[in-house]
Amino acid sequence: MSLGRKIGEGGTSEVFEWEGKSKILKLAKPNTKLSDIQREFKNNFIAWNLGLSVPQPIEIIEVNNRPGIIFERIVGKTIKERLFKSFIKQMNNPQPRIDLSDVQNTARLLSEIHELQHVELRPQRELLKWQILNIKYLSDEEKTSVLKILDQLPLKQQICHGDPNPNNLIVRNDELVLIDWNDATIGNPEADVAEFIVMIKFAILPSDTPQSIVSIFESVRETIIEVFMNEYTVRTGVTYNDIDPWILPIAVRKLYADAISEEEKQLLVNEIRERL
């Protein structure tokens, strides 16, 4: 079967329509190995089998010598798209009023995921250490200091998604669905929450974004974090003080990511060095 219309692209894959519009094919780029695809399929299947709100993984196939995964297609808008739509509606309002119910729902979904365990997921601490050691933006001494701090943090055994950013959260018929389970692990939920906070706090919008939208986003960054944490704390008892020690190792880990700009990485490096 030939590839359908291309509908998305990330750092490690391209996404195409498959068998009409009921399924998608997430096809690996050259920087992604078959073992990565197999791990993502397994992670996603574990989450789906536990009854979590995730796409159903269907099978692994090969197209033009590239491995890929066929998934149930989730039709809807991402949290990022919905947030920016609300920003656009408020462009001419001197006191923007942004609906952050999607942010609350994100906190609720993550709290449900973080209640669960599964022994077949890879250890979070092991992955974090590997990523920290393999970044190029810090000295060996700085990396060693980060690893020492990481080793002092408590160790838990809960399911964590690994990349709960607004592009991976899709609203389908009022249901929030979490996609892209490649980085799922068993470990500390605080790391997942820190991932969300770091992304909101340090994200740099594309250069062609209207300045009015940039201004609205800048004005609500901290509010988004506050709304998220208030909901997450109500549901789990975990506070921002519990999350803050994880900001450092997660900021370092994000330097390993392909999907963020060099400018954003420099902001992260500055934050890391302030915390060390």
Describe this structure in words.
With 276 residues, the chain is an alpha+beta fold. Helices cover 48% and strands 17% of the residues. It has two domains: 6-72, 2-Layer Sandwich (Phosphorylase Kinase, domain 1); 77-275, Aminoglycoside 3'-phosphotransferase, Chain: A, domain 2 (Alpha-Beta Complex). It contains nine helices and ten strands. It is globular and about 50 Å long. The N and C termini lie far apart (53 Å). InterPro entries: AGP_Transferase (IPR051678), Aminoglycoside_PTrfase (IPR002575), Kinase-like_dom_sf (IPR011009). Pfam families: APH (PF01636). Residues 16-197 form the Aminoglycoside phosphotransferase domain.
Task: List the SSEs and their pairings.
Blueprint: E1 6-9, E2 13-18, E3 23-28, H1 34-49, E4 57-63, E5 66-72, E6 77-78, H2 79-89, H3 101-113, H4 124-133, H5 140-152, E7 158-160, E8 169-172, E9 175-178, E10 185-187, H6 189-202, H7 211-236, H8 240-254, H9 262-275
Antiparallel strand pairs: 1-2, 2-3, 3-5, 4-5, 6-8, 7-10, 8-9
Helix pairs in contact: 3-7, 4-5, 5-8, 6-7, 6-8, 8-9
Gross morphology: globular
CATH class of the largest domain: Alpha Beta
Q: Based on the coordinates given, report the CATH architecture of the largest domain.
A: Alpha-Beta Complex
Termini Cα gap: 53 Å
Overall mean pLDDT stands at 95
Structural Rg: 19 Å
| Number of structural domains | 2
- Determine the number of helices (DSSP H or I, runs of at least 4 residues): 9
This entry's quaternary arrangement is single chain
